[in-house]
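Request from the bench team (R.T.):
"We need a structural guess for the complex before ordering more fe (ii) ion. Sequence and SMILES attached. Just send the tokens back."

Command: build protein-fe (ii) ion structure.
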Amino acid sequence: MARAKFEVKSVDELAAQPEEYRAAVRKIVLSHAVNELHGARVFDEPAIALAPTPYYKWLACRIAMEEYGHHVRFRQLGLDIGIAPEAMTPEAKRPLSIFEFPLKTWAEFCVIKLLADLGEILQVEDLSHCSFLPLRKLSRMTMPEERFHAEFGREACAELCETPAGRQAVQAAIDAYFPYLPAFFGKPRSKNNELFRKWAIKLRSNEEMRADYLRRAQALATGLGLKLPALALEA
Ligand SMILES: [Fe+2]
Ligand SMILES: [Fe+2]
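Reply to R.T.: structure attached below.
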């Protein structure tokens, strides 16, 4: 069956939509605004101090700048659609559990960019077909930067893997961090996700996204000669 083409072209058009749709759009924009800020604070900005060389400090600065930039853009869209500024902070809304990992080493940061930013790529890919066009546009703008972060993660992990000690550090970081990631895609049979799909804000279910993520993460790890730990997933 062909998908009905439901599109909301602007912030002005959004105002005329049913409250259920507007609330769903606010929810997803708020989540991105909060999580981009929190990730930049707890992972990307501290990584500048952990980076081992001036070259990597420069790249870490660029990544931190871009992650803060994602927050700035999502926050602006949030303001445009009527979200209160004080609501768009990690103090007001609890960030995702993927950020609870206590970052201590450069290898861990490289693994976070390899694996967590792959998760973000999947989310942004899905949103780049979203029925609310300002959000679709914002996702498409964000995409090249998220791809750059994930590619940075892959290359930095590959470089670390050139020495036995570096390879061990990367594998240990994967073993410690990977279990945080499946929760990034939300709960199975999620009511929020059902609503997002009903309104064509998102295309895929949490279960589909998670399965695709695990497949892509597995391919990345195998490509680097590394292993993902086995996980007990909630069905
Ligand atoms: Fe980001
Ligand atoms: Fe990123």
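Two things stood out. Residues 67, 117, 120, 146, 149 surround fe (ii) ion (ligand 2) (CB under 6 Å). The chain has eight helices and no strands.
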